[in-house]
Specification:
Length: 66
C-alpha cells in the first residue's frame, strides 16, 4: 500500500481531462454554476490528496526541526 501512494498524484489530473464535460452553467450546485463548483471541488480534493501523499511519504517521517 505505502509503495503505491504516489499514484494518488494522478487523480488531480482527472480534473483537466474531465473539464470539457463539466463545462456548463446548469445545474447549480450549492448556489454555484456547475463549472465553478467543479473547479472548487477539485481544488479541495487536490489539497486533500497532496496532504495524504505527504503523510504517507517515508522521507517525511523525520522531524522538521533540527
Amino acid at each position: 500500500m505505502r509503495k503505491y501512494f504516489q499514484l494518488l498524484l494522478i487523480v488531480p489530473f482527472l480534473m483537466c481531462v474531465l473539464l470539457p464535460w463539466a463545462n456548463r452553467v446548469e445545474p447549480y450546485v450549492l448556489g454555484l454554476p456547475f463549472l465553478l463548483f467543479w473547479i472548487v471541488l477539485w481544488m479541495l480534493l487536490s489539497s486533500f490528496i497532496l496532504f495524504i501523499v505527504y503523510k504517507l511519504d517515508p522521507e517525511n517521517e523525520g522531524s522538521e526541526t533540527e
